[in-house]
Amino acid sequence: MIRITLLLTFTLFLGAICNAQKYYTRSGVTEFKASKETFEPIEAINKSTTAILNINTGEVVAQVFIASFEFENALMQEHFNENYMESSTYPKAVFKGKIVNFSKDALNKISSFDLVGTLTIRGKEKVVKTKVSVKEHNKKLLITTDFVVKPEDFNIEIPSIVKEKIANTIQINIKYELVKKK
Amino acid sequence: MSLLKKNKFIVISLFITMLGVGMWSTYHYVFGAPTKASEIAPYFTGEAKEFKYLFTEDIKYWNNKVVQIKGNVDEINEYGILLNENIFCQFEKNIDVPENSINQDLVIKGKVVGFDELLMEIKLNQCIIIK
């Protein structure tokens, strides 16, 4: 009897996993801005972010390769990778979290949800709480959000010589277009 | 023009040229845009199968290296193509790849972004189709 119950539980569990509907992208746009108005813009864009959303649970995971942030200036890109982010040692930034009370069926009524999760950069974790917009368009889920982090949250040291040129807070903007995973 | 005057003229001209080249190089180094993958000579040119083998031998080594690979197209979307089951090549600009390219061989040049553990794929970006 116990064996049958265990087998049934396992089958149901397996069924739940198989039924998990996922939406994903390989080409999500993640950009950051750390500019001060009077100085040259310090901003970069990454168009190669991978993100997966489980629409049954609202769980979301996103991964960005640091070295694929593109700057307009090559020297700035080099400093970003070598001096500040140490992208050869810490090649990825990862966000794992949950869109609270997410329901795909409710998307025609609501589009704004709470997003809670942990952002890991340079091996340091930081809890992120923000609002996220989720809209359905042409069978795609369009996710947009933004939040602010500080360099010191991730032990990023800004040398005093350039401190005046870099903003104290860094604005992160996210725009992902997710399609159903086959 | 005396020999001394001639030499002076050559020296000054050389100095101005060198100064100009130096200033141009410095300006380019400080304010220049990053070099695109299409302008960089590939570290590896060959079959996607072989590249996959070399990549798994030392994943970190390949990060940010430009490669040119020939592989079989498994999937096409508006941002890129999937070669040999798990090499995703993201295009520099969105281009329309003909649907009949599926199951055909294509040669792609692009920059290795890294190994995407979420999708278990090798990721390339700034890709262009060579043929």
Q: Work out the strand percent of chain B.
A: 25-35%
Distance between the termini of chain A: 37 Å
Provide the gyration radius of chain B in Å. 23 Å
The amount of helix of chain A comes to 10-25%
Structural class call of chain B reads: alpha/beta
Count of separate DSSP helical elements of chain B: 3
Largest interface in this structure:
A-B, 23 and 24 residues
Principal-axis shape of chain A: elongated
Helix content of chain B: 25-40%
- Strand count of chain A: 8
Element pattern of chain A in H and E = HEEEHEEEEHE
Oligomer: heterodimer
Task: Describe the structure in your own words.
The complex is a heterodimer of chains A (182) and B (131). By secondary structure, chain A is an alpha+beta fold. Chain A contains three helices and eight strands; from the N terminus they run αβββαββββαβ. Chain A has an eight-stranded antiparallel beta barrel with strand order 1-2-3-4-5-6-7-8. The longest helix of chain A is centred in the N-terminal third of the chain and has 18 residues, at 2-19. Chain A is elongated, with a radius of gyration of 19 Å. The two termini of chain A are 37 Å apart. Chain B has helices at 3-31, 48-57, 59-62; strands at residues 44-47, 66-76, 80-83, 87-91, 105-116, 121-129. Chain B is α/β, with parallel strands linked by helices and 131 residues long. The A-B interface holds A 24, 26-27, 47-48, 50, 52, 61, 63, 65, 67-68, 70-75, 77, 88, 91-92, 179 and B 29-35, 60, 63-64, 77, 79-80, 88, 90, 113-114, 116-119, 121, 123, 125.
